Amino acid sequence: MLWILVTLVAAVGQTARNAMQSSLTASLGTLGATQVRFLYGFPFALVFLALVAAATSASVPGPTAAFIAYTSAGALAQIFGTALLLATMRARAFSVAIAFTKTEAVLVALFGFVFLGDALTPARLTAIAIATGGVVVVAAKPGTDWSTRGARPLLLGIASAGFFAMAAVGFRGGILALGDAPYFLRATTTLVWSLALQACLLGAWLLAFDRVALARSLAVWPQSLLAGFMGAFASQFWFLGFSLTAAANVRTLALVEVLFAQAVSRRVFREAVSAREAAGMALVIAGVALLLIAA
Question: Between the CA atoms of 28, 29, 30 and 31, what dihedral angle is there, to the nearest 10 degrees?
Fold first, then answer.
């Protein structure tokens, strides 16, 4: 049951990282703020890997063809998912943007079943449905403009969820492809490879098409460094979770991030919580509780 603890730690870290990235989006743009997560997170991931290898006196596992394929797919999907998440934040309140992306849990369950053969029991499916329903209740604000313009944040959020689901399944596939090495070493190795790929790919794109955003991300390095650390910290624990249990379990428990996002909204962004949002959060808690009972 260690996956429960590491997932909760990851959710707290990711909430902090999202808040930091959201504040950087205004000055760096969507892709510039996305690059911060990867470029500044990569050195910390290397430190994590060095510490894990030294503490266990184990050799870092070498890549296989399956590992490279899964990890590359996950890395690319996460770039798109992060960019779409930040775009959603610009179009809608922080907590609601996070809520939209949490439809990811259903997609992770389906993708994990199809591509990795992860088990889907009736109890787990029910837990995912209840928790995701709670997310929908939080996000579906009465009186919202659902015309083409008003629906844009919803579409961005769901698209972001789809890419994050593909990323979660890709990273778990990469971890499993590393064979019999200790789970924490496989998780950290996959994290290093994924961040290296992401920093190179997005950095090359910005160098070619948006040098202003790249230059700005380097200019605000103190804020970017902290956001990068929190990104690497959260990702380290997400990957540990993926190495311990099915991605669907991890991402469903991660729905508690909606609760953390509401707390950030109230404390940092001064956004009030309505009775409808409280009811939705109660459903999230009920779904997560059922998941833990079924796990």
Answer: -70
Side-chain-facing half-sphere of 292: CA atoms under 13 Å:
17
Looking up tokens 């994924």, which residue turns up? 194
Give just the sign of the alpha carbon dihedral 286, 287, 292, 295.
Answer: positive
Q: What is the pLDDT of residues 151-190, one digit of tens each?
A: 677 778 788 889 999 999 999 999 999 988 899 999 999 9
Report the C-alpha gap between 236 and 6 in whole angstroms: 9
Note the pLDDT of residue 142: 66
Q: With contact defined as beta carbons under 8 Å apart, do 195 and 38 qualify? A: yes
In degrees and rounded to multiples of 5, residue 69 shows phi and psi of -65, -50
CA atoms within 13 A on the CB side of 265: 20
- Look up residue 92 and give its DSSP letter: S
270 Ramachandran zone, left/alpha/beta (phi>0; psi -120 to 50): left
How far is it, in rounded angstroms, from Cα 260 to Cα 263? 5
The answer to whether 294 and 127 are in contact (CB under 8 A) is yes
Phi-psi region of 143 (alpha: psi -120 to 50; beta: other; left: phi over 0): left
Report, as ranges of residue numbers, the positions in the chain whose pLDDT lies below 70.
90-100, 102, 139-151, 258, 260-273, 295
- Alpha-helical (H) ranges within 40-103 are 42-56, 65-91, 94-101
**Phi, psi (degrees; rounded to nearest 5) at 157:** -65, -45
Q: What is the pTM of this model?
A: 0.82
Contact yes or no for 282/131 (Cβ under 8 A): no
**Kind and range of the H or E element at 63?**
none
